[in-house]
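writing this on my phone so excuse typos. first protein, seq and then structure
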Amino acid sequence: MAKISPFKAVRPSKEALPNFSSKSYKTYSENELKKELKENPTSFLSIINIKKNASFSAEKSKRYKLVKDRFEAFKRQTF
């Protein structure tokens, strides 16, 4: 039987909410992505957008750890 563990949700402040969400990073062109990251540093794009790199494709755990580390830093700075 699966074990379900509760967790605390992470939500932006009401002031940051309008700038927090984004569409899928795969739908942005390179120029759109650069512009969005520059204009909106509090979107999730700043966490999940990692340049495609051969070392990441060889070992996905490195990519996931980098995303986790960015998320933890983002929470410390934003919340």
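second protein below, same order as before
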Amino acid sequence: MKHRIMSSFAVLAMLLMLSSPSPAAGRHPQIHAAIEALERAKGHLQEAAHDFGGHRVDAIRAIDEAENQLRICLQY
């Protein structure tokens, strides 16, 4: 189940990177959009009333790692 959640976040990040760019994002707009979407998902998980079958903490960690990797990408 954890693998499915992490895979889902990876797919989400890839889809967002391929989505239409935001004019305010500047350089690498798809990566900025992916970071914003991950931040919204993380906020949802943090405010949720339940722990998603015990996977909320792992999902938040996966989001943090995905955001970290995307921020590294922005350096190039």
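Residues 2-7+26-73 form one domain. thats all i got for now
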